[in-house]
Design brief:
Function: Involved in chromosome partition. Localize to both poles of the predivisional cell following completion of DNA replication.
Strand content: 5-15%
Radius of gyration: 17 Å
Order of helices and strands: EHEHHHEEHHHEHEHEHHHH
CATH class: Alpha Beta
Structural class: alpha/beta
Number of domains: 1
CATH topology: Rossmann fold
Pfam family, one: AAA_31
Protein name: Chromosome partitioning protein ParA
Helix content: 40-55%
Organism: Siccirubricoccus deserti
Number of helices: 13
CATH architecture: 3-Layer(aba) Sandwich
Bound molecules: adenosine-5'-diphosphate, magnesium ion
Distance between the termini: 25 Å
Oligomer: single chain
Strand order of the largest sheet: 3-4-2-5-1-6-7
Largest sheet: 7 strands, mixed
CATH superfamily: P-loop containing nucleotide triphosphate hydrolases
């Protein structure tokens, strides 16, 4: 049945990096879309900017209740889930109030576990998914913290540009800290190099640098800089639907396959 997942609990992956514009949202939307061809997938938009919601065709004016309502107002998951243009992909949109959540969360005793608790409050619905993705805001505040506490792993998109390595230590240290305290099971799913420019030697140098440092934690698949990727959101579609044959879409198909391969190799 369509409600029967392939395993007992979903794999929960947070897309995080405190830098903005590195490809978190694009990677979240497209990995979720590609995996939804065969799996039931949930994407939670945790960025007040709401780019994942817009990118899946849900405009700012029609957001309604979403991750804010769930985190702050105790709205059940079932009431904030929306369908998307992708049949087996479901979305919890970023409501317009989400910008206030960082401040309001502080007032809760379980401020860093609100997301985990909310998801597990409807265990049957939560477990009906094979994958859950969190699209995090570009900061290491309480929203990202909630994501890292509720996640099994973190996928860090890294823009292939000069100084790429300098920013990444902040997120990897945060993952370490959370592993030691709030979520011992948290792992680094991997680092995905994004916006790679084949015509620019610097991209290759940066890629070598990152691989030298993080070794096999870096996905072999590299996401090229591709105009079709940047056009897709204005059509409310993932690039993997907007132009499946484009190099950007094909790279995300390959990245999803690599993620699956690595998962199988671990189990
Ligand atoms: P983040 O969520 O980390 O802020 P986004 O995924 O929103 O980053 O990407 C930032 C901008 O770059 C967006 O306008 C997006 O459309 C564009 N973009 C992302 N990946 C690519 C790519 N591979 N090629 C071209 N443009 C891209
Ligand atoms: Mg984003």
């Amino acid at each position: 049945s369509p409600l029967q997942p392939e395993r007992a609990t979903p794999r929960v992956i947070a897309l995080a990096n405190q830098k903005g514009g590195v490809g978190k949202t694009t990677t979240a939307i497209n990995l979720a879309t590609v995996l939804a061809a065969e799996h039931r997938v949930l994407l939670l938009d945790l960025d007040p900017q709401g780019n994942a919601s817009t990118g899946l065709g849900i405009d700012r004016t029609e957001r309604g209740a979403g991750s804010y309502a769930m985190l702050i107002e105790n709205q059940p998951l079932a009431e904030v889930i929306r369908t998307t243009p992708v049949p087996k992909l479901f979305l919890v949109p970023a409501d317009t109030d989400l910008a206030g959540a960082e401040v309001e969360l502080v007032g809760f005793e379980d401020r860093d576990r609100r997301l985990r608790n909310a998801l597990h409050a409807d265990e049957a619905l939560f477990r009906s998914f094979d994958y859950v993705f969190f699209d995090c805001p570009p900061s290491l505040g309480l929203l990202t913290l909630n994501a890292l506490v509720a996640a099994d792993s973190v996928l860090v998109p890294l823009q292939t540009e000069f100084f790429a390595l300098e920013g990444v230590s902040q997120i990897t240290q945060t993952i370490e800290r959370i592993r030691r305290s709030l979520n011992p099971g948290l792992s680094l799913e991997g680092i995905a190099l994004t916006m790679y420019d084949r015509r620019n030697n610097l991209s290759e140098l940066v890629a070598q640098d990152v691989r030298g440092f993080f070794k096999d934690k870096v996905f072999e698949t590299v996401i090229p800089r591709n105009i079709r990727v940047s056009e897709a959101p204005s059509h409310g579609l993932p690039v993997t639907l907007y132009d499946f044959r484009s190099p950007g879409a094909q790279a995300y198909v390959a990245l999803a396959a690599e993620l699956r391969r690595r998962e199988r190799a671990r189990s």
